[in-house]
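### Sample
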Amino acid sequence: MRYRLWRVAVFLAALVPPLYWLYCAVFGLLGPDPGKVLVDSLGLGALILLLITLAMTPLQQLSRWSGWIAVRRQLGLWCFTYVTLHLSGYVLFIAGVRLDLVLRDLSERPYIIVGALAFIGLLALAVTSNRFSIRRLGRKWKALHRLVYVILLLALLHMLWVVRADLGEWLAYALIGGALLLMRVSVVASGLQRAGALWRENPKKVEI
């Protein structure tokens, strides 16, 4: 397998945060409401991983290093893992494993509905994130996985409803997400590839 050490490093980097948060929860380091802190931390971690996953293609275009793409699927699956833990934490710590409260939140709180839609979208991508699905779906696979852009918008909207008054942090993530989506536009993507090629030929001539 190519980039074995790189893949292992990414795996460990994604594994450490939830283990650290769990350690803090066990030893009472998350304050008076550790369940909510865990849920919020996992949700934010999932958004960050989603942004990092979307950054892999522009980084590959700039550097032409295929190692970025080699870990893109792993990062996407880690994002789904974080979201699953985020949802599980909500059901366990916020709703108290009560189906009636979950259903009530789904009907009364729009941000829960938006988050659920984002989870369903990530589930579809995770299930089809394998070679069998790529062969089975053919051209439809790429179309399906463009759903990630919609998922990003849903995730940002979900976070906006959650933070409400504190918009500074949300705006930073929204700007990063907007920039990553802009890089998908063909003209911008072609410019990145040209800039990357020029930089590799003569780094001193390219201003960054």
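The chain is about 80% helix and 0% strand. This sample (Protein-methionine-sulfoxide reductase heme-binding subunit MsrQ) is used throughout the tutorial notebook.
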